[in-house]
Amino acid sequence: MVQASSQNPQVRRLIVSIHDVSPRHEGAIDRLQEQLERHGARTPAMLVVPNFWGEAPIVRGTPFATRLREWADRGIEMFLHGSEHRDTSRHDGWIKRLKANHMTAGEGEFLGLSGVEAATRIAMGRTLIEDIIGQPVAGFVAPAWLYGPGAIDALQSADIGIVEDHWRVWDAGSGRTLARSPVITWATRTPVRQKSSLAVAAIVRSIPGPRVMRLAVHPGDVGSDRVRRSISRTLDTLRRHRAISRYADLVDDTRSAA
C-alpha cells in the first residue's frame, strides 16, 4: 500500500467517507467503521447530519455526542452534512425536478433552498457540531451531493472549508478546485440501482482512474452482502497504488503545487 504523504501533489490519493452519521444509524456506522478499518481505512471522514429527517436530533451531552467528539479527537474529519437530509422544497424547472426525484429519494435538502434559508441551516448545524467536537468542522457536503444556487452562495459567504459534489472537491470561500474526482458509491434503494452501482464499482476497479479517488459508504450499505463485498474489493484494489488520505491533504497538495 502507498504511504500517505502531505504536501505532495504527485501522490495518488484515496479518500474514504461515511455518510449520514446520526444517532439513527449508530449501529450501521459501527459496522461500516469496522469493515473500513479491516481494509486499511482507519480514520474515514464522517458526514454528520444534525437531525436526520427531523427524527434523530444530535443533542449535546448525550452518549452519541460524546462519540462524535472522541472520533474527532482521533483525527477523523467531521463534515456538516445538511441539516435534516430531507428535501421539502418545491422545485421549479424540469432539471431541478429531475434531480430531486430521480437522483435521490427526496433527500436533496439543499437543492431548492434560498440563500437565506441555506445560510441559516448551515450556521445552526455548524454551531451544534463544532460545540460538540470542540474544533472547526472540516467542511460541508450537501445531502445527495446536490446544491442549488442559494446553497452555493451561502457556502461561499460562510467560508466553511472544504465542499464536494459528485465530481469535484473545492474550497468554499475561494471557489478554488482542490480535486476533480468522481465519487464511488453504492445504491441500495432498488435492485436495479444496486446492480448498476455494483457494475460501476467493478469497472472502476479495473481502470487507472484520476489521481484522486473518493469512496463513500452509507448506512444502507450494511444490509446487502453483495454491496459489502464490493466495498471491500474496491477499497483493497484502490489502496494498492494510492495513499489513503484526508481531505486536508488535498489542500496541502494545492498549496504545494502553487
Summarize the structure.
The protein is 40% helix and 17% strand. The chain is α/β, with parallel strands linked by helices and 258 residues long.
Molecular structure report:
Strands 1, 2, 5, 6, 7, 8, 9, 10, 11 and 12 form a ten-stranded mixed β-sheet that branches. A two-stranded antiparallel ribbon has the order 3-4. It has eight helices and twelve strands. The chain has one domain: Alpha-Beta Barrel (TIM Barrel), CATH 3.20.20.370. By secondary structure, it is an alpha/beta fold. The model is unreliable at 1-5 and 94-103 (pLDDT under 50). Strand 7 and strand 8 form a beta hairpin. The longest helix is centred in the middle third of the chain and has 19 residues, at 115-133. The chain starts with 12 loop residues before the first strand and ends with a helix.
Please supply descriptive tags for the structure shown above.
258 residues; alpha/beta; TIM Barrel; 10-stranded mixed β-sheet; two-stranded antiparallel sheet
Question: Which helices and strands, and how do they pair?
Answer:
Elements (H helix, E strand, L loop, with lengths): L12 E9 L4 H13 L6 E4 L2 E2 L3 E2 L5 H11 L4 E3 L13 H9 L12 H19 L5 E2 L8 H10 L3 E3 L3 E4 L5 E4 L2 E2 L6 H15 L6 E6 L7 H14 L4 E3 L1 H11 L1
Parallel strand pairs: 1-2, 1-11, 1-12, 2-5, 5-6, 6-7, 10-11
Antiparallel strand pairs: 3-4, 7-8, 8-9
Protein name: DUF2334 domain-containing protein
InterPro entries: DUF2334 (IPR018763), Glyco_hydro/deAcase_b/a-brl (IPR011330)
Pfam families: DUF2334
